[in-house]
Each structure stands twice: as structure tokens, then as C-alpha cells.
## 1
Amino acid sequence: MPEKIFQAGYMSGDSYSASAYMAIEPNARIILVKDTKEPQDKTDSVVLKFYRECGLADRVDLFDISGTTIKAKELWTAIKDNYKERAPAPPKQTFVGAPTTTPQLLSRFYYDIVPKNSWPRAITAVTGLLANAFESGYGESAKKVADLWKIGKFDTDTKFALWEYAGTRFAKTGVDNIRNNIVVIWSRQSGKKGGAHVELDSSYAGIKQIVDYFAPAKATVILAGDERNGKLAALAAGSTQVVNCAEMWKDKFWSDHFAGVPVLAQLAFFKFLEEGFKVIHVGMRSGMLETMGLLGMTTFYLEPDVCPSGDRMLAFSRANIPYTRIQIQAPPGLTAWDAQTSIESGVRAPTLNGWNRKLSGQIDFLMRNNSYRNFYFYSDTGPRGRRLFHPDQAQRDAEIYAKAKIMLEKRLNPSAPTYKTDRDKILEDLLTKNPDTVKAELKAMRGFYQTDLDKITGAIESQFRT
């Protein structure tokens, strides 16, 4: 039966699995909603661009609500469960031109898009639909996906081009010195940029822990995905066996050598490497990692033990797609940890703006309160023995104390009778320490718990080619 799938433009990571499903089900369609009022909308820059590369643009029904008062996230809430819950049909609307209200949109989605007179499926349903297809015919489904993404047996010209790129990226390592096993560590930072699931963002401290385990002697490491402030580049600089492919989509190479299909060519790069090496992918759960699993590469995705959004992904493992969950006790980063503790408390995870507001409130408190400011935020002594206040240094120190206070408070039980007293005591205890000490303690809170790190590295190493 043909399906119509609802996708909002800010759900760019879902485009890969959606396109894979469309490869298998030739009559499936995407209802794509563009809303530039949403900061993370990537309709033009990512979603449509990818569907065009796949040759699927004629199966995408685009609705641009940017000029209306409708918000994409509110529309998603209004529609996501209707198919599953067999919701009644919406009132049929009569209007001229493009829909400009939610009732008009719902009417158009339900009555006019094939299959007509039915609710669209949520984009999250694609996981199960794909898994069902792979279960009923793994080889045939995998081939259809590989063909859609133009990844199969590489012709000579493609091989030469991909070897050229590999030679550039692995220049410091030397192609002959690449180890038998390549661990690709994916960095996900979309939550910190204002997107969904802050709790699934990567931590550069966590990435470094995995690098430090494998790079010295066990495997060649590729760093891929989102970069910030040159952190992945700095990690790669420390070893000839750590190769930086962060944000490789920005490289001019792809448009020069693969005009029209630059994104698909980047997927081909990793599959091409697997012809000569064992390539294992790992990272916090993301749409890009799903792609690697769908291409048949060993893939491990990380998510916290409590993760309401994650169970649907288990369908891939059921269908023998090599996309395997590793559950961790806590996210490795501070903002992710903060969001995760909210989830575990039954509270909706705060957005990045929520975290920043909380942090700013703590910093402002420390900067405004003279008793605290006088206590530590003076850095040297001026004439007549007077301590000099340096606002910039004070701001930096206050941020360190504020972050440490927030994260330490996360360990308290809000329902305990001593909660408020304990919360106040945390700040009191912090202020008995100098900023460098607090900074070191804050650094220690970042990264994976050792038990989680052991679980991650053990799972990866169990798949090594000897």
C-alpha cells in the first residue's frame, strides 16, 4: 500500500531513512513542510537538496508556511499521532490558493494527497516500515537502497576520485599505514544549535576518550560530523592515526568531482573505504548513523538508558540491519546531561535556550552579589593594596562556578526535605575553592562514565577484523 509521510523541514536527519523507504516503496510520497520561522529549518539547504540528488523530488509535496502564522512544530504535534490512533477525518475546507491555516493544511493533507482520504504517516514511522521491508527481503531491499544512493560496485573513474580524496585526507597517515580497522566517530551538535534532542548531542570530551583508546595502537580513527571551534581538528592533530573528516560536506572536492550528487558521494566514500578495511561507525543516535547501518556497515549508536524517543530504532536490529544500540548511564556533555536529567524526572527536556537562560541566571546572581564577587572575582592587587576588579575575568570565573553549581545540583533529589538547603550548600562549598580547582572538577564531569566507555570500546573492538 502506498504511504504518504509527513516531514517538517527541521527534521533533516530523517531524510536519509525516508529516501531509503521511498526506494523500496515506489509509490510512497513525502509531505514536506517548510517553515523559515523555525531556526532549524533546512528544507532548501539539506532536505530538498538530498531528495533531488536521489531523484525523488517529483515525489515530494512541498508546503511553505513561512509566510503564515502556523508553526511547523505545532503542526507536527497536531498531526503526528492521527494515523496511528485512527483519528476521525478533519473537516473538509474549501479555499482558493495555498492553505494558510492549520485546518486548511490538515484538509489538504488528508483529502488531496495520495492516498486520498487518509491521514499521513509520521516521519518516525519510517523506521518500522523500513525494518519490515528488510525483514521480508533483506538482499533486495539493501540493493534498492544502494542503487538509489548510487552506491554499488564503483566504476574506475569513481574509484580514482575517491582514492584521490582518501589520499588527501590520509596524507599524514599514509595510505599504506592505515590500520585494518577504522573507527569512525560521529559528532552530533544539532541540539546545541537549537535543534531537537539536546540529550543526544555529542561531547568533545567523550569523543576524545574514544580516540585515546583506539588511536595509540588499536585502530585508525576518523572524526566525522559536526565541528565546533576547531575541536575535532585539535584532536586529530595529536596523532597520525586520527584523521579529521569533520564537516567534509563543505569541501569543494565533492562539487568538483561529483556535480549533482555531492552528498551521495560522501556516503560512497565510507562504503568505498570498506572495500579495503573494516569500517565501524559510532556516535550518539542520529540520522546519518542510520544511513551507515542501511549501507551494511557495522554501526553503534549511543543513547541514555532512559530515552523515550529511542525504542523505535530497535526495529533495525530486528531486521538484521547492523545498527546496534549501546545504552549509556548518562550523556557525556553538560548540556546533554542537564536535558537528560529533566527527561528522567518526567519533565520535557529544555532547549538550548532553556539551558542558556538557566546558566545566565546563575552568572548574573554571582556577578550582582557583592559578597560573592568580593570573595573571588578579583585577580590582582593595585596601589595601596587594593584588590582590582576585572569584569572580563570575573565573567569567565562566574561561568565556571555557575556551570559547576548547575551540574552538582542535578545529583540532588528535588523531593528530599533538605533539597533547598543542600542546593545552597553547593554554592557555599564551591566558593571555598579557587576557579582553577572548580574548572578541573567541572572538566571531570564531562565525558563518559568509565563503565560506559568500557561498554562502547568493548562493543567496537568485538567487531574488529584480525
## 2
Amino acid sequence: MSDRLVIFDTTLRDGEQAPGIALSPDDKVAIAKQLARLRVDVIEAGFAASSPGDREAVRRIAAQVRGPVIASLARTVPDDIDRAADALAEAERYRIHVFTSTSPIHMEQMLRKTPEEVIASIREGVSRARSYVDDVEFSPQDATRSDPDFVVEACRVAVAAGATTINIPDTVGYAMPADFVALMERVYADVRGGNEDIIVSTHCHDDLGLAVANSLSAIHAGARQIEGAINGIGERAGNTSTEEIIMAIKTRQDYFNVEIQADTTEIFETSRLVSRLTGYPVQFNKAVVGRNAFAHESGIHQHGVLKNRETYEIMDPGDVGQESQLVLGKHSGRAAFADALDKLGVELDDVEFARAFDRFKELADRKGEIGETGLRAIIEVETGHPSDVVQLVGLHLSGGDRETPVATVRVTRGGEPFETTAEGDGMVNAAFVALQDAFGFPATLLDYRVNPFTSGADAMAEVNVIIQIGPATYSGRGISTDVVEGSARAFVSALNKALADRNGAATGAEA
């Protein structure tokens, strides 16, 4: 390793600017403390001049959080800089981050200043910040839509006035990696030059989905600070994701050849805290911290991961505080199913395994994902009665509303296919009547209960029934994403117990 890369986290400043997020000072302190545990280098705690709440949050973070440098944003306006310095006064180490716009559209439409006036404000603003602290950062806002010559001039003026970090923002996510690298190389050569005390930085937005790519590309152009936010939150489409930068550097140290000090095991906890306090959910397929980041459903992938995790995982989930997951779904194979049974401590013979696996695949086709509760139910129902001689093959329902409900059931009886049709007071009753015909004897339904044990529109339901045949009663249990089908399976389970009793009695009489 030859160089150190500074991780500058702006979750509490630019990240909070995402629509709908309004963190309280207590929330900000909690996140800042977690960022310190993550060991980022710089925490941009807020924009002290923007509101009393932001100023209070910056003040409290400066007083309570130790380890990272604490920064506050400020325009090149004396009052902004003075308020930032005041809010940061109790920090162990602090930075004032001064910015102004340099693109023609910003200077004309927002600042209403000439380029010469902008240059003067940079000189005055950075000088004022430097009168408070040696650590001053300057950003030419909207740099990627600015004249490169003017960006270089603005940055040189900032360095001459005392700036120690020059940050190049892709404020609206406009840059392409090759163009951004070219701009960064020019800033590195023409602004930093041989001054090793100057750090060149990036701050990229994700409007075109290129924030992380642009930021990482800039490292080879000399950037030694990357600014980002946890979970990539921020204005519009958000910022560079801090956690993605950290793990890209850690995973591909051979490529980037820079060092970072972050404690990666704190990444997942940091992500979840930010998500909870901001109310912004983490998308399932989000790199590094998403629910599916280390989840595998494909049978081929699951088989590979069971053999060797590195077949399909380039990062160790434990390194970010996550765990690998073999998700049991419609694409899962026998290897993953067997592994899940092993983790549950379930042992099945070949016949039981085949029956349970077939039922699992049937349900997974409808539900998509089967969790531990559903898996246990499948095993109990499909392997609990190996002596079953009647199997439910299919169920067709018709009628309803003003028409009489009709159920057609297809079963195998002693290995032979058999089909019966019956009417009933409702769909469940029609299925019950048809199954009595299929088994060849009548029964009375004494108790019927439905218990959903997963949530959602595709929830799996457990149906429990008790039937009476003569003086004897029998219980049955069935599971399905369809209540009527689950009921039919429960009826088959109970009727098979009755059939087994009848067969046993007949055998005893013959003996």
C-alpha cells in the first residue's frame, strides 16, 4: 500500500437533504457515534448556518463524538463561516468546508455574480475559515458543468488562501467516468502540483447511476478523499454510497493500492441505523447492505456456495456484519433443500425427502420464498404419515356466488388415479364431500381452523381439522397458499388415518 484514502461521510449533511428526511439533533448524534465506530475519517455533521436545529446538532456532535474530524458546510459568506466555527468549537478536531458555485448557470441564475466576484468571494471565504482552523476544504459547486479553466483558477485561489482539501463535486451527477477522470487529473496536476499537503477529493451524485464509478475512477487520477453517504442517500437520486466505496477498496486492494482505516464489520449496523432514523428503506438488491446482497436462491449458485463460499461471493458477509443466506425458493435445488434440513436437525429417508422436496417446489412456485416456519410445516405434513395410501393430486373448483359450489378432486388410490366431483354449501364443504366419495366412506367435520403463519398476499396457511367416523375421531393438517387446497390436504390427512385404522381392523379380522 502506498497511499491513504480519506473517507468523508456526509450522511448528516447532504444525506439529510433527501426529500422527507428531517433528523433531530438526537438522531444526528446517534448516527455520528455509529459513524465513529465505523471509523470514517471525516463526519460532515451539518450546515450550521442553515437552521437552529442543524447548528445544535453540529455543536453536540462536535462536543460528544471523538475520533473522526467533524466538519460543517459553509457558503463563502462571513456569517456562515462564523457560525460553523462557533458550532465546531468543542470538537477534538474540526474542519470548515467552504463552497460556492462555478458553473455559468449557477453563477448567473443563483449567485447573480460575475466570475470575478466569485473568485473574490472564494479568496475572502477561505481566508476567513483559515483564521479559525488550519483544516479548510473548498468545493467549486457544479464543477463538472463548469469551464475547466475556471475550476482550476478557483481552486488555485482557494489553495493560496489556505485551503488544504480541494473537493471536485459532480453536483448533478452529470459526469461520465472518462470525463471526470480527465478533470480530476487536471486539478491534481495544475492545483495540487508538488504540494503534498493538498488533498484532492471527489463528491459525486447518482443522477445517472455513476456516483460510485466516478468516485472510484478518480482515485487513479490522484483523488485521496471520497465523499459519500451511508446507503447512498441524498439530494434527488442520492450520493456516492460510503459503504460501497469502503468495500470496493477493501475487496480490490490489488487494483486501487490505497489504504483505508474503516472497520467494515460496522457497515451493516450503520446502514440499518440510518435507514431506521431517516425512514428510507434499503432496497433489497442494494450492494453490500441490501437484504439480498449475500442471498442465493438459484440452485446452481447454492450448490456452489455450499461447496465453497467464494464460488459466488467476492466478499465475506461477516466482514460487513452480514451473513450468507441460502434462500429457499422456486429456483432452489436439492442441495440447498438438504442443507436447510440439516440446519434444522431434520433427517429424512429417501422417500420422505422426495415427498417433502416435491411439495416444497410446488409451494415455492406460488409463494416465491419459503422460510423456516413454512419448511417445518412442509416436513411435518408430508412426512408425518408414511402409511398414507391416498394422495391428493389435483383440485378444481367452480361455482360460487349465486351458483352452487362444485369441487372436483383428483387423487391416487393405491397408486391408481381416481377422480370425483361433488357439490357443497361452500368451496371447502364441496371439497370435503368429494373426498369422502374418493375414500369410499362418510365422515363428519367436528372442528375446522385456519392459521396463517406467513404474511403477505401469498401467505401460507395451516389448516387443522377434526373429523368423526363412527365413534372415532381423527385429526388432519394441511398447508398451502390457498385455503381451500390446504383444507383438502387436511381432510386427506385425517381420512388417511381413518383408512389406516380400517385396513388394520380388516387385517386383524382376517388373522
